[in-house]
Structure formats: C-alpha cells, structure tokens
Design goal:
It is a multi-pass membrane protein. By secondary structure, the chain is mostly helical. The protein has five helices and no strands.
Length: 117
C-alpha cells in the first residue's frame, strides 16, 4: 500500500466523518427542537443522516484508523486514540490535525531511509 495514498484517504475520511456529524446533528436539531421535516424527510432526516454517518463515514474512519495503525506503525496508544476519536463529534478532525502535526501519517522507515542533505 502506498503510504501517501493511505494518508490522503485517512485525511479525507476524517473530514467526511466530521462533516457527517454536522449533518446528523442538524437533522436531530430539526427533529427534536424545530419539530420540522426539512426537504420532506421523515423524522427530520435523522434516519438518512444516521445511515450516512454511522454505516458510512464512522465505519470508514474506523477501518482507515486500523489501516493506518499497520501502515504507519502506530503504537497501541495512538491506535486507540484514533479509534476513540470516532466517537465524539469532530474529534476525528482533532486527531487528524494532531497526527499530521506530529508526523504520524508518514512511514518511519521511509523517513529513516531518505537521503540526508
């Protein structure tokens, strides 16, 4: 697996997971606060938004976190934090930014093998 492709996929999925939270929270707001059915969607669109978030991006994020655990050789603590970041709203963005900042989305052996200037 190409690490740069995995890195890009992880970042896209992390952003999508957070965006799907926005969709789900907006649908829940419409259902329970506004008591409205926007766009004619039943129950404020919660069933649709819930499927997009849960069966779509949440599962993709978990899968990508496991793939990254092996590809980037994360330690157990980092892997668990990545998985736990799927639960609170928008935590996937926080983890993705942290991983990028700390170099967790690059292969250590590729960095070690790179020629020094």
């Amino acid at each position: 697996m190409n690490p740069s492709v995995i890195r890009t996929l992880f970042r896209v999925v992390a952003f999508g997971e957070a965006l799907s939270w926005v969709l789900l929270l907006a649908a829940m707001f419409c259902k329970w606060v506004l008591d409205a059915e926007p766009f004619g969607l039943e129950e404020g669109g919660v069933p649709v938004a819930g499927m997009i978030h849960g069966a779509g991006f949440f599962l993709l994020y978990v899968i990508m976190s496991v793939v990254c655990f092996f590809v980037f050789r994360w330690n157990i603590k980092t892997g668990l934090i990545a998985l736990l970041a799927a639960i609170p709203p928008f935590a996937s963005i926080w983890f993705e930014l942290k991983a990028e900042r700390e170099g967790l989305l690059t292969r250590r052996d590729a960095v070690d093998a790179a020629p020094r200037a």
